[in-house]
């Protein structure tokens, strides 16, 4: 197909957009089978936490090679559960990356502990293990690496530091269901791994999350925490005709429903397909964009298989006559639903107010943020959608070159 020429008038300046309707940066795919399994649950006795949750947990644990999987009502709730299970409390510190969604750092605060940020590496924008090592104090209790954009963090050196200092590693793999790190499935590598099933992710339950772990005690703590701090299983109690239960710690109602779990089970069958489609789109973008001077493509290291949740490009500011705000607005005007992942967490007003202004302290993350733009990336994209993205990227960057 002939490419749109960069001399064509930009939509933001009154020209014709590359496409007529907005292509979002991410979107769920729901098929007839998904709908039917949800309808079946709605017609059954259990619509909240019941047999489908257990089935979904077992299927996901099997899929990632973990002993336990504990379902939560969102990825954020799952992160909170993991922070609790790790024993984070006031006075403790936990190290994480500024290049993430704020939920990663917020879960440390939910437990009254203090997030300590460590800068990222320039190639993957994942947390830099050397920076992690520099942040360790006697208060450090946990490390929370994030698999940014679906590319697993540099887990081996992080786990070595954790082992040496007796720390818990909570991997935020909300972007990385199906990713591999040195031949191992993400989900079975760290003490706990957290997934999200938000609609833009690889599979969806509407809202939902999961923590996987091989540790029996951590799994028991996670189960208790998502159900008000109550020991045991309500369904089992009802089946045994028992009314007595013990609340042994302060927990929350973070339960996933059977409605969501049935959808998750049906979606999980399509995970392989969704991953290969995302990898195909990434490969297409890699080839189609590699010759645009000044654009920096996301890098995949040799020893990983990324799950490609996002496709974040950066650009060399000196090669273009416009900054990110202008380029972003021009791409949106072409009806390409670009986004930005992420505003470094420490720069959010809440974090500034609570911890002071630390701008300049994480130069790699902060410099990356200045030019980051996520191009649309989801498994339901058509070939034409992909071409539209490339056409608009060539048109806009070509215009400002
Ligand atoms: C890295 C990361 N962590 C945590 C979350 C929170 O997940 P959820 O939206 O399921 O609460 C997200 C959400 O997109 C995320 O991107």
Short key terms for the protein model shown above:
binds pyridoxal-5'-phosphate, globular, alpha/beta, 7-stranded mixed β-sheet, 401 residues, 14 helices, single chain, 3-stranded antiparallel β-sheet, 38% helix
What would you note in describing this structure?
The protein has a 7-stranded mixed β-sheet, with helices on both faces. The chain has a 3-stranded antiparallel β-sheet with strand order 7-6-11, with no helix packed on it. A hairpin with a 2-residue loop joins strand 6 (180-181) and strand 7. It is of the alpha/beta class and 401 residues long. 38% of the residues lie in helices and 12% in strands. Helix 1 runs antiparallel to helix 9 (258-268) and helix 2 runs parallel beside helix 9. The structure holds pyridoxal-5'-phosphate (PLP). Pyridoxal-5'-phosphate (PLP) is lined by residues 74-76, 79, 100-101, 103-104, 146, 172, 174-175, 196, 198, 209.
Write the layout of secondary structure elements.
Layout: H1 32-42, H2 51-64, E1 68-72, H3 75-85, E2 93-96, H4 103-110, E3 114-117, H5 129-135, E4 140-144, H6 155-165, E5 168-172, E6 180-181, E7 184-185, E8 192-196, E9 209-213, H7 216-225, H8 234-239, H9 258-268, H10 271-289, E10 295-296, E11 304-305, E12 311-315, H11 324-333, H12 349-355, H13 363-371, E13 373-375, H14 383-400
Parallel strand pairs: 2-3, 2-4, 4-5, 5-8
Antiparallel strand pairs: 1-9, 6-7, 6-11, 8-9, 10-12, 12-13
* Ligands and ions found: pyridoxal-5'-phosphate
Percent range for helical residues? 25-40%
Which stretches are low in confidence, meaning pLDDT under 50 for 5 or more residues running?
A: none
* Spatial sequence of strands, sheet with the most strands: 1-9-8-5-4-2-3
Mean pLDDT, all residues: 96
* Structural class assignment: alpha/beta
